[in-house]
Amino acid sequence: MENSGIPQEVMVPPIEGVAGGGTAYGWVGGGCHGPSSLSQSIDPTEVPSAELLHVWGMPSTANVGPQETPRPLEPINLLAARNERESVQIALRPKFSWGRNGVAGVVQIQCSDICSASGERLTVGKSITLRRVVPILGVPDALVPLDTPIAQISLFPGETTSIWLSIDVPSSQPPGQYEGEIIITATKADFESSAECLAKAEKCRVYKELKNCLDVMEPVDGRPFDEVVETVKSATTSLRRVLLSPIFSEYYSDNGLVDVMEEDAILNLSVRVKLSLTIWDFALPATPSLPAVFGVSDTVIEDRFGVKHGSKEWYETLDRHFKWLLQYRISPFFCRWGDGMRVLTYTCPWPADHPKSDEYFSDPRLAAYAVPYSPVVCGKDTAQDHLKKEIEILKTKSHWRKAYLYLWDEPLNSEHYDNIRSMATQIHAYAPDARVLTTYYTGPSDAPLAPSSFEAFVKVPMFLRPHTQIYCTSEWVFGNREDLVKDVIAELQPENGEELWTYICMGPADPHPNWHLGMRGTQHRGVMWRVWKEGGTGFLYWGANCYEKASAPSGEIRFRRGLPPGDGVLFYPGEVFSSSYQPVASVRLERILSGLQDYEYLKLYASRFGKDEGVALLEKTGVYLGPEHYTVDHLPIDLMRGEIFCACRC
Fold this sequence. Notes:
By secondary structure, the protein is α/β, with parallel strands linked by helices. It has 17 helices and 27 strands. The protein has a nine-stranded mixed sheet with strand order 17-16-15-23-22-21-20-19-18. Strand 22, helix 14 (521-534) and strand 23 (538-541) form a beta-alpha-beta unit. The model is unreliable at 1-6, 15-33, 191-200 and 252-261 (pLDDT under 50).
């Protein structure tokens, strides 16, 4: 992204209840005082930036709030496999104010490429990204992109600001040690109003000069040499006038020559954060080992972006969301709910005979895809004919093994369960090997399957067989009893294609792993540790964009009433924060990606040494012992990953 030269002051987005206090763990209120107001006497171009602001690194699992206390600045050391993303935070807090109008000061953040001794590199803007962490309901969550390689942001008195740095390692990147740096510089605030001071008339004049120069230079073919020389002289004069415009005055010294020493002088005052990345000699698989399917509400998209169902703009908007989400190792499906929790789910909005269908389903980053039971967009075919046609086309494809049909969300009574049986019977008539997925947390309330509610829950597979192949159960039901998972698995018939997936929705609550706003970072990441240890072969999350209805992309973000803050919302519309139409990820979504990457590490280790040894490693390092006992610090995670690499590289 090209640097605009204007400090990126990310205003607090329109969030319902944004005035509420921070609830993130790890926020420390004591020991910090607001910066002294000495802005009239401080020139940041003459004072080392280290004397004006604190700079320090924080792990990606830390919730860095406004009152986070400074720590010593140390070099940042990261570890990553190929085809992996590693992230770290850089925290900034002013010691003094050198700005004005309530701003402590403006800082410039410059990130270099990171290079190996042999000349291999990871480039800024492609493999390396910078995002500012913006509070949602007072909790650090939204990751708003910054310009690269140079960004400018405003700091505020008495507040800590966090920058989220991510490095994406391509699968073809040579392993080894890579070095780079992030340069933090306190700058003058003179340019804060430069956009306003730059008069429209001056911009118009420069435009006309440049256009005139181009018009003069273009038609030179076939013209006499002397005339061409005069044309070049005229163009030179025009370009010189442009360069002498007030717009470019800051790049010239008093004698009209560019002061090439100025930048070096400023950089000598900067805080330099050393960055080291060790790339290990193995790659995470392109296709995730764990199918993690996440819902995206198409009705929320239609309302907020003003796109009509089935229109060209509708397809484009869904396509943009699908492609953006694949980077997180999740398999998106679009969804809308009907009566009685019947749900229409589909991964591709185009029908199976459209070229886009194969493009979507053959993408190696997609681990699973939802086949719609009913037409996504109404056409000439009846619902039954449409279903038959879709299945008959898809079952001939090599990617059919990824397919599933998700028909009903959390059935509660005999009528719901009977509807699932009826729909599944129709599906299996067209494709006996089709996989039907059913989410549930209880048996039918009006037809008890056993004396206790949990015993009835365990008996659901017997009740639904053979009409469901993927039994997707709520983690909330298991509580902190990992042994209960084994009871459910014991009821399944893997030889007949039955498998256990799990899901979270509202529950389980703190301290269990979940993705609610304000939970610990390791609590977010720990959801996938739990999935791996319990032995589930897939995971489902009900919604990633399920905020309340809004009629404009930049409209107020309101979490759904009755749900824990953040439940069902893992990314935000980009238009809320800027003019960008790209979604803005949450910190929680990045931690989900990290958890899914951890899953691959653990799976690799278990493939070499067995599942029991993998569980022993998870517990020995203190990363995860159970849903109420897991690390709150980041160091054990790196210790576990390092031990897995060392053990498996042989």
